[in-house]
Design goal:
387 residues; alpha/beta; Cytidine Deaminase, domain 2; Dihydrofolate Reductase, subunit A; 2 domains; 13 helices; 18 strands; binds ligand AOF; binds zinc ion
């Protein structure tokens, strides 16, 4: 690929625009991971007329977002001359149509990007495709670096992870001020630790993943639905996956019941058991609505987490929400299978069960975000030892 140069003043302006776009795009990091944070701007006569960002995993990329914003700007399409993007546009259909198609359809003649996409499906092919179609392509290296705005995406594309892939795991949990996942007896408005606003957020998390993963302990203790309700999007119904080594999910568990509708949706229920688990229970659970995978156990006889993640990957799960109790959560953390955390700390003192406090030391996280949700404090971060 030949790279076009621009004059120094123009390059300085483009660099500063790229930095702005990168800073804005980074705000969506927890919503888009493992995808990269990407921003794009449409220029007409040297002026920025529209910006767009990749805001939600599995949904619209930055380029079509910027092009749609340009349509709304009222500036005639014939005047759009340049598209500035923090990352090379994708050139093959993924969850959404290829961005290079959007660009070609827009009639824009010049594309400025700051970095090649390390995703093995792209790596220069997007820029080549645009050049072959006659567009002027300028690469301003270092304008905004993925290592600054989306280090998680570089890790996701590391050779080791690409060779033996596993889904991106987001561990979400609600804890008391003491870091415990169960409130003290008789406290916490029934069994809730977190505020109504945080419970709403959880519905949004659920509609942003391919699967929700929990343990049989949680199923037995709480009998959860693991469905998507408003303000989540019930048109998305992630699979409901239960780690159930001995197939001890109760036959009348709510999670086994099919749910579909405009206000609530539940995906298929998959139970992950150890190979050789009880045949009678197997048949009864299948009749009750479950699909069962029998995987190899680990040295302590539990179903292997790695085998579970491999199995989920093979079933097409790429982004998974882990909503479970402290024992399974600690196993995931200890094995470094957690790629992202979202922790809700409610206004409740004390608690029961193990405390997660030891996992929350600042050195364990990169690019953290501390914020509020109702009366809860929320910590979102990528654990340092991804990989
Ligand atoms: C772009 N613009 O804004 C982003 C890109 O699963 P999909 O279909 O969303 O595709 C994800 C891949 O697309 C991801 O691995 C990365 O290569 C690229 N991300 N590309 O043109 C964007 N977020
Ligand atoms: Zn794209």
């Amino acid at each position: 690929m030949t790279q076009t140069l621009c004059n120094p003043t123009q390059e300085a302006d483009l660099r500063s625009l790229l930095r702005e776009l990168g800073a804005e795009a980074e705000k969506f990091r927890f919503q888009v991971a493992p995808n990269p944070c990407v921003g794009a701007a449409v220029l007409a006569g040297g002026r920025v007329i529209a910006r767009g960002f990749h805001e939600h995993w599995g949904e619209q990329h930055a380029e079509p977002a910027a092009l749609k914003a340009a349509e709304r700007s009222g500036v005639p399409q014939s005047e759009w001359d340049t598209l500035v993007i923090t990352l090379e546009p994708c050139s093959s259909d993924g969850k959404t149509p290829a961005c290079t198609d959007h660009i070609l359809k827009s009639g824009i003649q010049r594309v400025v990007v700051s970095e090649l996409d390390p995703d093995p499906r792209h790596r220069g092919s997007g820029l080549e495709l645009l050049q072959q179609a006659g567009l002027e392509v300028t690469l301003i290296e270092g304008g905004v670096r993925l290592s600054e705005v989306a280090p998680h995406f570089l890790r996701w594309n590391e050779l080791e992870r690409v060779r033996r892939p596993r889904p991106w795991v987001i561990a979400k949990w609600a804890q008391t001020r003491a870091g415990q996942l169960t409130p003290p007896e008789g406290i916490g408005e029934g069994r809730w630790i977190s505020s109504a606003e945080s419970l709403d957020e959880v519905q949004q998390w659920r509609s942003s993943v391919d699967a929700i993963l929990t343990g049989v302990g949680t199923v037995r203790a709480d009998d959860p639905r693991m469905t998507v309700r408003a303000p989540g999007d019930p048109s998305k119904a992630p699979a409901r996956v239960v780690l159930d080594t001995e197939l001890s999910t109760p036959l009348d568990a709510t999670i086994l019941k099919p749910v579909s509708g405009t206000t609530e949706a539940g995906g298929p229920t998959w139970l992950i058991a150890r190979a050789g688990a009880d045949g009678v229970r197997h048949r009864a659970l299948v009749e009750a609505g479950a699909e069962i995978a029998q995987l190899k156990g680990n040295s302590s006889g539990q179903v292997s987490l790695r085998a579970t993640l491999d199995w989920l990957w093979d079933r097409g799960a790429r982004r998974v929400l882990l909503e479970c109790g402290p024992t399974l959560l600690e196993s995931f953390l200890r094995n470094r299978f957690v790629d992202q955390v979202c922790i809700y700390t409610g206004e409740i003192n004390g608690g029961r069960g193990p405390s997660m406090a030891e996992w929350l030391t600042p050195d364990r996280f990169t690019t953290r975000l501390d914020r509020s949700s109702g009366t809860d404090s929320v910590l979102e971060a990528f654990p340092r030892s991804l990989g």
